[in-house]
Amino acid sequence: MAPRPKKYWGQHFLMDHHLARQMVAAIDAPPPTLVIEIGPGKGILTRYLLDTPCQYVGVEIDPELADYLRQTFQAFPNFHLLEADFLSLDLRSLFEQYSGHTPVVIGNIPYNITGPILFKLFQHYRELHQAILMVQKEVARRITASPGSKDFGILAIFSQLYARVRYLWTVPAGRFFPRPQVDSAVVQFHFRKDATATIANEALFQRLVKTAFQQRRKMLKNSLSLLFPKEVLNKLPFDLNLRPEQVPLSDWIQLANQLHQQTPEREGQ
Length: 269
Ligand code: SAH
Known about the structure:
This protein is α/β, with parallel strands linked by helices. The chain folds into 2 domains: 7-191, Rossmann fold, CATH 3.40.50.150; 202-262, rRNA adenine dimethylase, C-terminal domain (Helicase, Ruva Protein, domain 3). The protein has 11 helices and 9 strands.
């Protein structure tokens, strides 16, 4: 018998097979691929993934669902399952194990750990080719937001730094069982191997963006005075009267590089 959904692991099972096939078809990576699925659940995506020429590695935290998946899919030679927490998984050793394969991540992911999952993927932007993720619609909007919109923030900056992102489809709450409170959406990430090539000091860049957005109503000259002395800020050829949501990614990089030039010895310690 199929296991019952458990709330604490964010289990909302997708019931729409057409959409499952569309998500799998959104994979666009040179074969052979390594497809890592986060939280396969009862395997609605898994069965379509296994039909593609890939090595499949599912990562499922729930022992009951893991058993169910092993029983259902054991006959497929390309099926592998790790009964594990994706957040503690050593992705680098998985990439090494399947070297020669293009790594792709897919998943209808548990909403309560969306942020940690995304930042884990961003750490591997050099190795990962692509990710196709179902997230809350509101989060999908924040990932793909443009400067000037109220959704533009830390998530947009880091998503769009490490990847080219596309909002693919809105998915109504009724397509899941049990039905979640909110609608979902599928987002596609194409990771950029050269993402940080123009950033002189990544630690400074990250600190800059985080500090500015922690006080998003304030002008940059005020929020950044927490990090840098006034004399340094006054010397910058950058308009610090802006609020953070008005500043596009390329300008954040410029600003971080200007700050790095002014204070190279203070950073990266
Ligand atoms: N992909 C399935 C299930 C989505 S529900 C579908 O579309 O129907 C989210 C799934 O993630 C559940 O199977 C849940 O058990 C699993 N999960 C939750 N936290 C996890 C974690 N930290 N690591 C791996 N899987 C997790």
